Structure formats: structure tokens, C-alpha cells
Amino acid sequence: MDERGPLCVGIDPHAALLADWGLGDDIAGLERFTRTVVEALADRVAVLKPQSAFFERFGSRGVAVLERAVAESRDAGALVVMDAKRGDIGSTMAAYADAYLDPSSPLFSDALTVSPYLGFGSLRPALDRARAAGCGLFVLALTSNPEGAEVQHAVRGGGRTVAATVLRHLAAENAGEAPLGSFGAVVGATLGGTLNELGVDLDMGGALLAPGIGAQGATAGDLPGVFGPAVGNVLPSISRGVLRHGPSPAALREAAAREAGLMAETVA
Ligand SMILES: O=c1ccn([C@@H]2O[C@H](COP(=O)(O)O)[C@@H](O)[C@H]2O)c(=O)[nH]1
């Protein structure tokens, strides 16, 4: 982020975007779309975040496109956050960790998004594997969608919200690491002023992946209000807001540079 600017661009090949780019909603369209984004951006943005679902919907050939995107993005110097939001009982979580956090796996990524809503402890195999491999996790804490509140804002017996509990677990995992530990949280940029009311402590020693900018309505200007003093640890993430400028590689680069500039003004 210091070298390339604080921006994560999502690779989300929505059917509607494929159509807007004049591509078919098929494996050839997926391949062309993905290659265009990677070739345009992987040598300049800090982080690329492929959304696994849009590749999985094409079956094994879609996953093969995803594998190439991960490898080529990393070769070009971008960090890759695999947005797969995995979460399961611990023994199955170990297999997800093998898939995304084992350096010998074709889907090995610099970080993986995971869900703690089977209990934070169920993530233990992924936490251990990430630590061993020198990569990271982004754990869902306060997601950008309005429906997340019914679970994440719920208040537990001791008076702490579920989201605050997740953040406390992350603080424990990151303890002693400087400047930041490997375990970040997903906190939506769309949340307005709600974080104050929830009593959450965003100073948990990890990065804050902030989706919701662009198509979901948040802007770079919202970040200080949402994150307060923790804004310096935010990795703002935008997918459709950049991708809609394709298929021209130059237009994608311009859009990403514009967004990175706006983010740098607010999160620096
Ligand atoms: O809380 C969350 C967690 C993940 N996402 C993912 O980020 C992108 C957002 O895409 P946009 O086009 O910028 O809206 C998408 O892949 C989501 O699955 C999120 O939006 N909110």
C-alpha cells in the first residue's frame, strides 16, 4: 500500500459486466474479462480481490481461470485477497486452509476472507495455516450489507456485540505483532456512524478491509466518519466502481488511479 497506494480492486465478473464489455456470459468471456483486468492493474494496484463465486459458477474451467488470475496477479506484484468467505467446522476449515493458504496449492493467495459465524474458534486451522505460510485472513466482522446487522449487532450475555467479540478475538491473534498482524477484519465502508454506537474497537492490530465503495453507495469521503482514528489501517475495496470503466485497459487504469488518489487523501 505504501508503494502502490491504498486500494484493493475486486475482480467480480458479473454477468451484467460481461455483457457491458461486449463479452459472452461463458468461459471465453470470463477468461477475456479476467485477463484484461489482471493485465491492466496487477502491476500497479496494491491488492486484487477476485470474488470466487463469479468463477465457481462456470465450474472447473472457471476455477482454472481463477487459478491463473491469482498466479499472474502475484507474479506482477499485486497481493491477492481471495474473497471466498469460507467458514465451517474446524476439520473442514482445515481443508479450506489447504486450498487457499498452502503455498503448494494452485489457489494459494496472500489472504483469504473467512466467516467466523460458526464460532471464531472454528477458524483455528486457517489461523494456524496462515501464520505458518506468512499470509493472512480477513475475518467478517461488520459486513457492508444491511442484513448483516441482525447477527453482527446482536448483543451477547456480557453486553458485548457479536462483531465486537470477533474484533476482540482478532486483537488477541495479532497481539505483539508490529506494525500490524496478519489477521484483519472486514468492515463495510457503508456503515456510516453506526460503529460508535456499537462500541466496537477497531484498533485490533490488523488491517480493515472496507468493501462497499462505489456500487454499494459509499465513497472515499465516508471513510474517516466510519473508521475514525483507525482509518489509517483501512484497505478500501472497490469492484464494480472500477470494472464498469472497462473493457479499455487504459480506462481501467485511469479509474483505479483516480480511486487510489481519492483513498490516499482520506486514509493516509
Ligand atoms: O461485507 C462485505 C464483504 C465482501 N464484499 C464483497 O466485495 C465486493 C463488492 O463489490 P462492489 O462491486 O464494489 O459492490 C463483492 O465481491 C462482495 O462479495 C462486500 O461487498 N461486502
From TrEMBL:
Domain Orotidine 5'-phosphate decarboxylase: residue ranges:
6-255
Alphabetically sorted, this entry's keywords are: Decarboxylase, Lyase, Pyrimidine biosynthesis
Q: Which PROSITE patterns match?
A: OMPDECASE (PS00156)
A GO molecular function held by the record: orotidine-5'-phosphate decarboxylase activity
Q: Which InterPro entries match?
A: Aldolase_TIM, OMPdecase_AS, OMPdecase_type-2, OMPdeCOase_dom, RibuloseP-bd_barrel
Enzymatic reactions: orotidine 5'-phosphate + H(+) = UMP + CO2
The catalytic site is made up of K85 (proton donor)
Provide one Gene Ontology biological process annotation. 'de novo' UMP biosynthetic process
Please name the pathway: Pyrimidine metabolism; UMP biosynthesis via de novo pathway; UMP from orotate: step 2/2
Q: What is its EC number?
A: 4.1.1.23
Source domain of life is Bacteria
Query: What family does the database annotate?
Result: Belongs to the OMP decarboxylase family. Type 2 subfamily.
Q: Which NCBIfam families match?
A: pyrF_sub2 (TIGR02127)
What PANTHER family does its record include?
OROTIDINE 5'-PHOSPHATE DECARBOXYLASE
Q: What is this protein called?
A: Orotidine 5'-phosphate decarboxylase
* Taxonomic source organism: Streptomyces abyssalis
